[in-house]
Amino acid sequence: MAKRSTFKTLTCAVMLGFICYQNAEMISNNVVGWLSLWLPIKTASATHYTETYNNDPQTTEMNIEGPHTHTDKPHNLNNIQGKAKGTNITGPELTEDEVKVTRQQCDADRRGNGKQGMKGEPGQRGLVGMKGASGHCPPRHILQATWRALNSNHFEGPLLSTIFVKEFFGTALRLTWSGDLRLKANSEDVPACRRWYFTFNGNECVNPHPIDAQLYTETQMYLDNIHRHTTIDGMCQGLFNGRVLIELNIGPCRLTQQLGFSEGYPFTGWDTTTSLIVEEINLITNKLGEDN
Which of 150, 212, 222, 257 satisfies CB 3.0 to 4.6 Å to 197 for a cystine? Predict the structure, then answer.
């Protein structure tokens, strides 16, 4: 009798275990329902998380389906049954001050206060420009006159002359004379002085000044016979256009009457080439210069 009773007990236990295994999910749900009547249990529901960026609300929602529960104590989320929907849970909502600070930072970035960006790549080569007009350099109006071995011992009056055709009234004439000059004193008691100067149509230049050169010799030099190569250079403005007679003259120095200079023994162009170059020049200003 005892053996038969034990066998029946084991058989009932096996059958009960098999029934519990087949209906484990249903029994678990019923047990949770019974416990909810006696224990302080909270039911899980959908949770909404909202955060504002630049006044553009972005809402992320998590939905937990099914009769899920949790207690106030920490628990493992893996134990919660059901499916979770949604991604990118961004955190708590910003306050008004935080939103203001964020907006100010964005405005500052737009004004160029942000960090310097990376250096860009070189741009494409530009198109070839149009060909410009050809430059124009006006021809120079120049005259050169030469005399071979002038050998003039005149002490007064014109020595040589040439004619230049001036094209414009507002231009100037530049003269460059090159030749040999000599002056000897004719007495050991009186110094000698002579002046070489240019005239234009019989008159010396007055704008700005005469074009000339002077030689002075002391009395103790009256025995010396020194010939010197000399250059006389200058510009004259205010001359009328057309034919201009240009002459190199010789005469007394400016202080001859006051100081009593003698005429001496002048000589011009001794056994050398004498040249005169005349050029018409368009000046930028009408003012050639002033005396200091």
Answer: 212
Distance CA 202, CA 278 (A): 17
Give me the long-range contacts of 224-228 (CB less than 8 A, separation at least 24).
224/184, 225/182, 225/184, 226/182, 227/180, 227/181, 227/182, 227/267, 227/270, 228/180, 228/181, 228/182
For residue 289, the Cα-to-chain-centroid distance in whole angstroms is: 36
Could you give the CA distance from residue 15 to residue 7 in angstroms, rounded to a whole number? 12
| H and E: helices and strands count for the chain | 4, 14
Q: Return d(Cα 62, Cα 88) in angstroms, integer.
A: 10
Residue with tokens 């009056």: 157
**C-alpha distances out from residue 273 to 142, 178, 267, 268, Å:** 19, 8, 14, 11
The answer to whether 195 touches 275, Cβ cutoff 8 Å, is: no
CA distance 207 to 169: 13
For residue range 107-132, what is the model confidence (pLDDT) as tens digits? 665 565 667 778 888 888 888 888 88
- The 10s digit of each residue's pLDDT in 185-224 is 887 788 999 999 999 999 999 999 999 999 998 877 667 7
